[in-house]
Amino acid sequence: MKVVGVDVGGTQIKAAVFDLNGNMLKSTRAPTESRLGKERVLSNIVSVIEGLFSEDVAALGVAVASPLDPVEGILYYPPNLPGFGVFNIKSFLEERFGVSVVVDNDANLYAYGEWVRGAGRGAQVLLCVTVGTGIGGGLIHGGNIWHGAHGMGAEFGHITVDPDGPVCNCGNRGCLEAMASSYFLVGYVERRLREGVASRLAPLRGVLEPKLIYEAALEGDTLAHEAFAVVGKNLGVGLSSLINALDPDVVVVGGGLSKAGMILLEPVKKEIYARTLKGIRDRIRVETAVLGEFSAVYGAAYLAIKIIGGDR
Ligand SMILES: [Zn+2]
């Protein structure tokens, strides 16, 4: 028997078929085409799954970047999938493919993937943040995904780190997401360049992206290092509060920005050490994610394996 894991993002659908031991057998990806509306997106999801589906497939695991009800499999107004509104993707896919379907938030499944087979393998309490254009969060406790009372738990991107900080996508001010995302990193560098700070990034004003800032940091650019230090500090401030509240044994930092490795993680660790309680700070492990951009696909597949009672 096999399972298929799917990660439906705003720009890409990623998917893979796995055996019941959790080994990825074949992967694929396709554009989501979210601008073309709900019917097109659903047809793209179905095509991607059909490309991997066979009679051996016993379940589907689906990760979606959306507030959702993980029990019923209902999405609530996914911000990156306009036109979906309230939609039961679990029923839709179960009717289409005739197998069990399990649905969860992409950041939760990213964390779950890292818990099963990544940097947080076997952690008792795994705290995970995905740092990209936004910041997602996941908390795995005793091998289970923490959903909270309304399926909205572990939205770590929206804890406040500066009450007077910039306005976040959620409407609040100074959320972690508004202070430590790749969007913030780029904005910070752009602002410092406007202030006249010397940097090899100066000619790239207006077309900056995290990768270019990372490369400049590797080449010893002071401003690039400063920008990662500020983002790392903000992230470390947010994580410290979460660590003091939740007492995890492992913290996994994933998402696009985590590709910067120690350039991001050093200031994060420094801040965590300075701000967390003495009983915790020497015993906590802070790691970058290892499963890469298919993390949520792994997590979705592992959850599918779990519901059909297979081994990982
Ligand atoms: Zn927010």
Short description:
Helix content is 38%, strand content 22%. By secondary structure, it is of the alpha/beta class.
Secondary-structure blueprint:
Elements: E1 2-8, E2 12-19, E3 24-31, H1 38-50, E4 57-64, E5 68-69, E6 74-76, E7 86-88, H2 89-97, E8 100-105, H3 106-117, E9 125-131, E10 135-141, E11 144-145, H4 176-180, H5 182-194, H6 210-218, H7 222-246, E12 250-254, H8 262-275, H9 278-281, E13 285-288, H10 295-307
Parallel strand pairs: 1-4, 4-8, 9-12, 12-13
Antiparallel strand pairs: 1-2, 2-3, 5-6, 6-7, 9-10, 10-11
Helix pairs in contact: 3-10, 5-7, 6-7, 7-8
The protein binds zinc ion (ZN).
Zinc ion (ZN) binds at residues 158, 168, 170, 172, 175, 177.
Biggest sheet overview: 5 strands, mixed
- Give the overall shape, derived from the CA principal axes: globular
Write down the domain tally: 2
Tell me the radius of gyration.
20 Å
Count the strands? 13
CATH class of the largest domain: Alpha Beta
Integer average pLDDT: 95
The CATH architecture name of the largest domain reads 2-Layer Sandwich
Helices, by number, come to 10
Q: Kindly report the name of the CATH homologous superfamily of the largest domain.
A: ATPase, nucleotide binding domain
Structural class of the secondary elements? Answer: alpha/beta
Which strand order spans the largest sheet, edge to edge or round the barrel?
A: 3-2-1-4-8
Helix content: 25-40%
Distance between the terminal alpha carbons, to the nearest Å?
12 Å
Secondary-structure element order, as H and E? Answer: EEEHEEEEHEHEEEHHHHEHHEH
What is the percentage of strand-forming residues?
Answer: 15-25%
> Which regions contain 5 or more consecutive residues with pLDDT less than 50?
none
The small molecules bound here are:
zinc ion
